[in-house]
User: Fold this.
Amino acid sequence: MQAKQVTDILQRLNPPQVALIFKASPHTPKSTGSDRQKTAIHHCYEAGPFSDQEALRRWASTEHLTVFKAANKSTMVSSDFQVYYPAGKDAEQTRINKMMLKAKGLNDVWPISDGDIKGAISLGVFNDRQRAMLFKNQLAEQGVKAEIRQRNKPRDELFIRFVGGQSAIFKNVGYTQVADIDCGNALK
Assistant:
């Protein structure tokens, strides 16, 4: 077979890769088909959270990562516990509920004007669930049927995105595989 015929056949079988290999070295041995299996498959991973940039860099260094990027993600975390009297059916009922609570000696009450419990009346906020439960039980002894809800707030956490092999195992931090596009040009 002549070189031109070989080139044409190889281009039809696998245009960009085989043709480039053939052109780069005309004396390249015949491909066995297992060359594709030897190619490393890389994916994008995300690990964290880390306490700060220095902790992120130390971890990247211990894992021998050379290409990575820091990423901040906002997550919801437990904030506190609010004890509240449930919302009335309308504004008039809420006003009556507030007067009833004041008549029972609860002067430090605040109407909740928005959110998922709009119209309820806040009776107190506690950092600890047990203290909130204790207060709720004290209110029950006074005939007040209060409820508790855990409030959450957003917190930014620091993560690292990096490229790793398909069967990569990383130490001392939680990690997940994410969409390859999240690693940008590092996969190219």
Notes: The helical segments are 3-13, 15-24, 35-38, 53-62, 91-103, 129-141. The radius of gyration is 32 Å. The first strand starts at residue 42 and ends at 50. Strands lie at 42-50, 68-85, 110-111, 121-126, 147-165, 175-178.
